[in-house]
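Lab notebook, design round three. We kept the backbone fixed and only want residue identities now. Task for the bench partner: fill in a sequence for the structure below.
Input structure tokens:
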């Protein structure tokens, strides 16, 4: 039977279906009904008879809906009678798909636990007369009623439900054709319905609950009334259903909001009275647990994106000590978005794992932040399955957690402030000036008391006497202190170091007071700042000043001594040098004239002359250095032709270079650059650099280069000598310093040449820098001051 509606999938047998065989093509519909009126099977003729297709006719409990509401009682009565008499015939109306009535004669026969029969179409004229003339009007009124209306037959089977009732029970989960006492999810009504049908007792159930198949949980008010037929007696009843879910949820939301509103002042008080952030966290967990009616509450904290770990636990059951839990925040996207999460068994694998770890039936996860970083969550748990968490509770907990975030940040800042103040050596203060211009302190730290010797109770409070602060200031510092006070009264920040005689012990201490005027939240002028004890610093500074003055006097004495000694030594050395040169000349002339002299006489005369020249060179350097340090060396700034000065220096050292087989080269710039400086000192700078290059170069050569760059002239002296160690480059231009201080070193010198060169260039507006690599040579670059024509 490919076109038949086969809601009953069991194979047909001749004993169970005596009317099925051979009737597929007859002009009537073969049907099979359950005892409650549910259509189990409809033959092909049912589609033509009702106008519904096979798929619609196969829907659960659709059979009773085909019957006109006024005739459903006839059908249920016939189904009861067929059980007693075996066969029954009844005339009733079907409601076609287009809404028109279709009268039929229904012949029924009992077949085990089902009823089988045939439905024959009847002419409209032979239709069963309506029970009431205004039946259509009553039907329309019931369908439009804002109250759900359900009709029960004498057995408690639903034979009619209006549109509102179907909306309440669920469009695809209606009660039609079902015994009311057996409807799943409807609690607390079955016993009263049975009593009504048995004894005719009406009832009102104000708190009936219905759990629909789509998960919705409804609060219903149900009023039941029996129906009496004058001929047949009590034939059923009517139930009126009023959905009070929204009203109850609104009332519950108001109660919930009031409860959580009452918790906010308690949370603020906990923040004010908690000594630190951890104590506030513990008190907050307990408060949230009690407010939410939880069995347990935990705070979970994490660091740097790691797992959240339970830190503190509150439990409403003294013997309840669950194991700590760990939570991966990445598995809960809602937490990252800052939304509370209701955790139940239907929430998936992560939710079930959390419930198992927490050993509870339901929970709420409420995230919170610290300084805009998400660091943790509250976990509130209930152990009883019938006390599920609602989303309204989760939202209320989220609002309370937001207040906690603000207060926790405040307690953290307060704790950090107290710790910072405790770690400070300085004293913090705040004061305002009274009408007489005296300080009235509003806040001081313990360090302030220790530094000034003034107790807080003598400074703060309406009854505290005004401290005559200027009387405590040292007499020599009072004028400066009054100027400091005047600046603060004028609204300007001020800082002063002064001496204060502490009233507690009379000891005088140096204090540094830094103060800034401002305004309090009420608009009053206030001054805040800090005070530091700088007694030891003042003493150290005084010692440093004395030491500096002594050093300056010693340096002046040294410089004066050097200048005096240089002058005193140069005079006799000049005479010695003159006689040594004369002796050297006489020895050469005698040898040239044929006089036989011992060979050592000429050697001794040369040694005397050379060492005298070196001594005079050293004295000359010492004299120049002392004049540079005392500022008595006059340096002119006039145009100086650079190339002639360089050529004169090269001519002076060319003989020494040739004696060592060195290549002494000059690569001049185009033209004749002119620099600003002292003519003698410019040539001296070049001489210092060239003499050093020749002295410290044993092979290769020395190259002097000049270049003009804009309005500056650059002089470069490069050599291929022994080079300078990198560690010594930083001290290259300090006086009396040499890379090799050994007495038997290979190269002589006083270590003053480069120091004098640097000071001469500084005085003439020039600069010098050096580059070198040990064993590969050195490069000195001099930049002279602005050029002139």
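Proposed sequence:
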């Amino acid at each position: 039977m490919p076109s038949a509606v086969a809601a009953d999938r069991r194979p047909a047998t001749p004993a169970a279906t005596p009317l099925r065989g051979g009737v597929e093509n007859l002009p009537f519909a073969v049907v099979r009904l359950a005892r409650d009126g549910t259509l189990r099977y409809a033959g092909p003729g049912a589609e033509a008879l009702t106008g519904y297709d096979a798929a619609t006719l196969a829907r659960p409990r659709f059979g009773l809906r085909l019957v006109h509401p006024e005739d459903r009682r006839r059908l249920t009565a016939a189904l009861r009678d067929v059980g007693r008499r075996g066969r029954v015939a009844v005339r009733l109306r079907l409601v076609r798909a287009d809404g028109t009535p279709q009268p039929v004669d229904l012949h029924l026969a009992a077949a085990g636990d089902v009823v089988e029969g045939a439905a024959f179409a009847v002419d409209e004229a032979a239709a069963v007369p309506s029970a009431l003339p205004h039946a259509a009007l009553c039907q329309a009124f019931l369908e439009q009623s804002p109250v759900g209306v359900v009709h029960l037959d004498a057995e408690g089977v639903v034979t009619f439900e209006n549109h509102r009732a179907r909306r309440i029970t669920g469009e695809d989960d209606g009660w039609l054709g079902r015994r009311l006492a057996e409807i799943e999810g409807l609690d607390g009504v079955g016993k009263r319905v049975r009593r009504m049908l048995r004894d005719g007792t009406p009832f009102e159930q104000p708190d009936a609950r219905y759990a629909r198949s789509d998960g919705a949980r409804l609060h219903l008010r149900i009023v039941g009334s029996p129906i009496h037929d004058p001929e047949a007696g009590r034939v059923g009843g009517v139930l009126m259903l009023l959905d009070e879910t929204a009203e109850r949820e609104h009332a519950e939301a108001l109660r919930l909001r009031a409860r959580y509103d009452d918790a906010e002042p308690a949370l603020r008080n906990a923040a004010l009275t908690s000594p630190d952030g951890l104590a506030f966290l513990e008190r907050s967990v307990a408060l949230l647990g009690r407010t939410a009616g939880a069995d347990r509450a935990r705070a979970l904290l994490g660091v740097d994106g790691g797992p959240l770990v339970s830190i503190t636990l509150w439990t409403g059951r003294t013997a309840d000590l669950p194991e700590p839990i760990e939570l991966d925040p990445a598995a809960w996207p809602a937490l990252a978005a800052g939304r509370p999460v209701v955790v139940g068994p239907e929430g998936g694998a992560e939710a079930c794992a959390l419930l198992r770890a927490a050993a509870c039936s339901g929970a709420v996860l409420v995230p919170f932040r610290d300084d805009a970083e998400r660091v943790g969550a509250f976990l509130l748990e209930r152990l009883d399955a019938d006390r599920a968490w609602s989303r309204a509770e989760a939202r209320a907990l989220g609002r309370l957690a937001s207040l906690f975030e603000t207060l926790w940040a405040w307690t953290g800042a307060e704790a950090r402030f107290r710790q910072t103040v405790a770690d400070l050596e300085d004293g913090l203060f705040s004061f305002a000036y009274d009408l007489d211009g005296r300080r009235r302190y509003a806040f001081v730290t313990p360090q302030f008391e220790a530094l000034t010797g003034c107790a807080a109770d003598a400074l703060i409070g309406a009854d505290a006497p005004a401290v005559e602060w200027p009387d405590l200031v040292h007499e020599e510092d009072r004028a400066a202190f009054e100027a400091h006070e005047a600046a603060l009264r004028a609204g300007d920040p001020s800082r002063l170091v002064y001496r204060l005689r502490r009233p507690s012990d009379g000891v005088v201490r140096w204090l540094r007071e830094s103060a800034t005027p401002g305004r309090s939240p009420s608009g009053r002028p206030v001054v805040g700042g800090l005070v530091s004890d700088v007694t030891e610093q003042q003493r150290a500074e005084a010692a440093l000043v004395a030491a500096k003055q002594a050093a300056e006097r010693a340096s002046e004495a040294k410089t004066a001594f050097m200048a005096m000694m240089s002058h005193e030594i140069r005079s006799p050395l000049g005479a010695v040098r003159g006689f040594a040169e004369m002796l050297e000349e006489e020895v050469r002339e005698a040898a040239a004239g044929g006089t036989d002299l011992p060979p050592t006489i000429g050697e001794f005369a040369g040694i005397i002359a050379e060492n005298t020249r070196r001594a005079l060179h050293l004295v000359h350097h010492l004299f120049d250095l002392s004049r540079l340090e005392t500022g008595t060396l006059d340096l002119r700034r006039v145009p100086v032709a650079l190339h002639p000065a360089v050529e004169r220096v090269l001519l002076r050292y060319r003989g020494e270079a040739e004696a060592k087989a060195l290549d002494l080269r000059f690569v001049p710039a185009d033209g004749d650059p002119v620099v600003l400086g002292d003519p003698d000192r410019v040539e001296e700078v070049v001489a210092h650099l060239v003499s050093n290059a020749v002295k410290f170069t044993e092979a290769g050569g020395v190259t002097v280069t000049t270049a003009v760059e804009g309005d500056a002239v650059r002089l470069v002296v490069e050599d291929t000598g022994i080079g300078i160690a990198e560690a010594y480059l930083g001290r290259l231009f300090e006086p009396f310093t040499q890379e090799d201080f050994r007495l038997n070193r290979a190269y002589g010198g006083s270590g003053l040449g480069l120091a004098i060169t640097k000071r001469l260039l500084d005085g003439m507006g020039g600069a010098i820098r050096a580059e070198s690599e040990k064993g590969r040579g050195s490069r000195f670059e001099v930049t002279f001051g602005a050029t002139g024509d």
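Keep this in mind before ordering anything: The radius of gyration is 57 Å.
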